C-alpha cells in the first residue's frame, strides 16, 4: 500500500492527488480542487513561523473534517434505512472491508496505512453505533 509515512510529494504538499484522486476513483481531481478552495494557502514568509497562522489553518481543517464526518453519518443512516426497508441486512462486514481497502489505497501520506486504517475503523464504529440508534430505532437522521 502507499502512504507508509512519507511526506506528501508536491511543492504545495499535495503529492499530486487527493484521497480518491488516483486513476479509477471518480472525482478525485475535483475533490482535491474543492478542498483546496476551502483551505487558505500554507503560510509563507514571516507567517510561516507563526504558530497562530498554523493553528488557524488546523482549526479550519478540523471544522471541515467534522462537517464531512457528519455528512458521512447522514449518508450511512440513509443507506441503513433503505436496506431495512428492502429487507436487507444493515450491517455487511464485507462492505466495511471494502471501505478500509478504498481509503488505504487512496492514502498518499504522510499518515501511515496502519493509522488510516485505525482512524477509519473508529469512524465506522461510531457511525454504526449512530445507525443502530437512529435507523434500527427509526428515530430520524441525527
Outline the structure in words.
- The chain has 142 residues and is mainly α.
- It has helices at residues 28-38, 51-85, 93-106, 113-134.
- The model is unreliable at 1-26 (pLDDT under 50).
Write the layout of secondary structure elements.
Elements: H1 28-38, H2 51-85, H3 93-106, H4 113-134
Helix pairs in contact: 2-4, 3-4
- By CATH, the architecture of the domain at 42-134 is named Up-down Bundle
Measure the end-to-end span: 35 Å
* Major beta-sheet overview: none
What order do the helices and strands follow?
Answer: HHHH
Radius of gyration: 18 Å
User: Going by CATH, what is the homologous superfamily of the domain at 42-134?
Assistant: Chorismate mutase
Number of helices: 4
Mean pLDDT, to the nearest integer, reads 78
Estimate percent helicity: 55-70%
| Poorly predicted ranges | 1-26
Strand content: under 5%
CATH topology of the domain at 42-134, by name, is Chorismate Mutase Domain, subunit A
β-strand number: 0
Structural class by helix and strand composition: mainly alpha
Overall outline: elongated
Give a short synopsis of this structure:
The protein is an all-alpha fold. It contains four helices and no strands.
Features:
Chorismate Mutase Domain, subunit A, single chain, 142 residues, mainly alpha
